[in-house]
Structures are given as structure tokens and as C-alpha cells.
Design a protein that fits this description.
The complex is a heterodimer of chains A (112) and B (114). Chain A contains no helices and 9 strands. By secondary structure, chain A is mainly beta. In chain B, strands 2, 4, 5, 6, 9, 10 and 11 form a 7-stranded mixed sheet that branches. The chains are: A mainly beta (112), B mainly beta (114).
Amino acid sequence: DAKTTQPNSMESNEEEPVHLPCNHSTISGTDYIHWYRQLPSQGPEYVIHGLTSNVNNRMASLAIAEDRKSSTLILHRATLRDAAVYYCILRDVPYNNNDMRFGAGTRLTVKP
Amino acid sequence: SQTIHQWPATLVQPVGSPLSLECTVEGTSNPNLYWYRQAAGRGLQLLFYSVGIGQISSEVPQNLSASRPQDRQFILSSKKLLLSDSGFYLCAWSTRVGLNTEAFFGQGTRLTVV
């Protein structure tokens, strides 16, 4: 199965940008890159996803390397509420595979 | 709009007792459904997923089982709980329409086996 590698933890200062990296060197052509985050004692929530092109939404931006073997989640201005565990996962299209596996994620600490 | 309900929020059960956790989804049809477990300070472990009624895929051998008696209902069960079954259990769903979509998680059940 395609897997992802993320740093265990990162720190950021409030109101500064944060770049969370993810490596997925065995990604297949039909794998989408998804990012979720989990606040303490809550279920994960969707952040963003993409296939090849960079993506932006109200929460974050996703920068995908040209060879798709890595990606970066960008929080443009970190707030204290962004402190969470961030998961980068690969999801295949439903007609290929329906499972959804998570790794350990990156624990982001935001300092005031 | 779609919602996911998971209950109870917390549960304390003695070793050897049975378990039944229920998850229901509203506002969508034929979703993929998932059960995860998260040990304290750890990542999410996929336990089971289902692509339709009566169709269950098990990811890891354990004393847990899952059932999907209705399209939008997913149940996690155990006949006899072990101490190692303690953890945070999460249910999730995603639509099977289209090429790729986001998944939605419930608020979780924190199970403590004593």
C-alpha cells in the first residue's frame, strides 16, 4: 500500500506561516493526497486534498511537487486554534480501493 | 446536509463484558463506512471498512467485529473486552460518488476497559 511519511512534530509562532511536509514516494497515478487535522479529543476534520495541481481553500493551501512524491500543507497565518495533529494520507479512487489509512501525523504546536 | 452520529461519547466497561458501538449517517446514500481506534497519543488505526450492506473488510486480527445491517448504520462489537481494547473509537464515512471526496468523522467514543 502507498504510505506517507511526516515529521512527528513541528512548532510555529502565532501569525506566522507554517509549512507541513509529507513524503509519499510510492504514490500511484490515481492516488489523491488528502490532509486532515485532529484537534484534542475530537475526530479528524478534512482540510484539503488534491491530485496534481496546487489547491487553495479557506483553511489552507496544498503545494504538490511536480513528481507528486511529496507535498506541503501551508497554513498562511497560524493561530492558536491551529494546534492539532495533521495527517497526510493517500486515497485511491473508489473503483480501485476504498480503504483509508492514517499514519502518526505531525503534531503542530503554536506558540503565542 | 450530511451528519454522522456516534454514541456513546464515553464508556467504561469491565474486562470480559460485551461491547456495542453504533454509528449512523444521515443525508447520504450508499456511503463507505469506517471504524478506527486511536490509542492514547497514537495515530488512527483502521479497524474495519464497509462499501455496502453486509460487506465488511477487516484490517487487523482482533476480538472486535463489525456489522452493517442497514445502508447508513455501522456497528462495532465485541463479545468479551480486553484491557487492550481501551482507546478512542472513531466512525467515519465518505461518499462513493465521483472520483475522490473528503471523509467525515464522528466525535468518537472514548472506551476505558477496567
